[in-house]
Amino acid sequence: MVGLTAHTLRWYEQEGLVAPIDRDSAGRRRYCDDDIGWLRLLIRLRTTGMPVREMCRYAEMVRAGDHTVGDRLQLFVEHRERVLARIDELQQDLAMLDLKISVYGEMAQAQAQPLASR
């Protein structure tokens, strides 16, 4: 449902990223909507490059209660800054690719023109 393997889900639970999940009579994990939402958040944090140790720290803060809201805010503000810096790096990388595509496109077109005029 969220695109994670059973192995990854078990690992998330083992690492404390996910609270122990209820199980059915056959021992299969039964994820509720809140669990799915939490997993989707973890996936986004991981996709944006948040280290697992920070994700664990965040999970611990959430479990600790509302007195950690300020620390959670700070964690997200800092992570957002890293994401913005990465976006800037990717934009610079994209600009270099666009330049190379333009240069090689012009070279390829120049090489093709003499052949077409024959």
UniProtKB/TrEMBL annotation:
One Pfam family name from the record? MerR_1
The record's keywords, sorted A to Z, are:
DNA-binding
- So which domain of life are we looking at? Bacteria
**Keyword set includes DNA-binding:** yes
- PROSITE patterns this protein is in? HTH_MERR_2
Domain annotation HTH merR-type: ranges: 1-61
Q: Which InterPro entries does the entry mention?
A: DNA-bd_dom_put_sf (IPR009061), MerR-type_HTH_dom (IPR000551), MerR_fam (IPR047057)
Protein name per its UniProtKB record? MerR family transcriptional regulator
Recorded source organism is: Paractinoplanes bogorensis
